[in-house]
Amino acid sequence: KKSREENSSTNIISNQSCSSSSFLPTSSITSNDLNSSFLSDCGSVDARVVHSTHSLSSKENSPSRASSSSPSKSSSKSFPGDVSRTSQDPPSQPHLAVYPKDEDNRAFQMQWFTNRPWLEYSVEKDSTFCYYCRHFSHFIASSRFTKDVFTAQGFNNWKRALAQDRGFNKHVNSQAHIMSTANFFEYQSRQQSGTTVLNILDKSRAELIRQNRNKLIKISSAILLCAKQCISLRGHDESLDSLNRGNLIEILKWSSTTDPLAKAILEESASNATYLSHQIQNELLNIMANQIQDRISKKLAGNVYTLLADEAVDASHNKQLSIWVRFVDDEHELKEYFLGFIRLHDFDAASLAKEIANHLVKHNISMSMCIAQCYDGAAVMSGQYSGVHAILQQNFMPKAIYIHCMAHRLNLVICHVCLVIPYIEEFFSILSNIHNYFVSSGVTNRYFCDAQKLLKLDTTSKLKKWGNTRWDSRFKSIDAIKNNFPAIIKALEDLVEDGGSRAVGARGLLVHMKESMFIVAMFILHRLLGPIKILSDQLKGVCVDLGSAKNLISTLYEQLNDMKNEKSFKDILGDKMINNKK
Question: Where is the TTF-type domain (predicted)?
Answer without folding.
Answer: 104-197
